[in-house]
Amino acid sequence: MILIVDDNQSNLYSLQKLLESKDFQVETANSGEEALGKALKNDYALIILDVQMPDMDGFEVAETLADYSKTKEVPIIFLSAVNTDKKFITKGYASGAKDYVTKPVDPEILLLKVKTFYNLQ
Fold this sequence. Notes:
By secondary structure, the protein is of the alpha/beta class. It is about 45% helix and about 20% strand. It has five helices and five strands, in the order E-H-E-H-E-H-E-H-E-H. It has helices at about 10-20, 30-40, 60-65, 85-95, 105-120; strands spanning about 1-5, 25-30, 45-50, 75-80, 100. It has a five-stranded parallel β-sheet with strand order 2-1-3-4-5, with helices on both faces. Helix 2 (about 30-40) runs parallel beside helix 3 (about 60-65).
C-alpha cells in the first residue's frame, strides 16, 4: 500500500486516482500528524510526501519516521512546488527521502519512480 500525504485535497485526489488507475492500493493523509499516525499503524511500501504543509512540514515528518524502527526503511518520495532550490532538495535527502520530485509532476515519470520503489520493497 502507498500513503500519499498532502494538505491540498485536489493534489491528493489526482495522485490517488493516478496510482489507483495502475492498480496500486492507496491511502491518503491530509497532514503530517495524520501521516505519522497512519504510518505507525499500517505497513506501507512507499510514502509520497508533500514538503510544504502547515504545522508539520514534510521534512519533519520524514525525520520523525526515520526515528521509528517500523517506518525508518519505508522509502519516501518528496513532492514540492515551492521548495525547488538545491538547498531544499539536499535537505529532503538528508531528512530521509529516497527521491525528490518538483511540481508540476510529470505523471509518467512519477509512475516509473513509484513502480521502482514499490518493487524494491
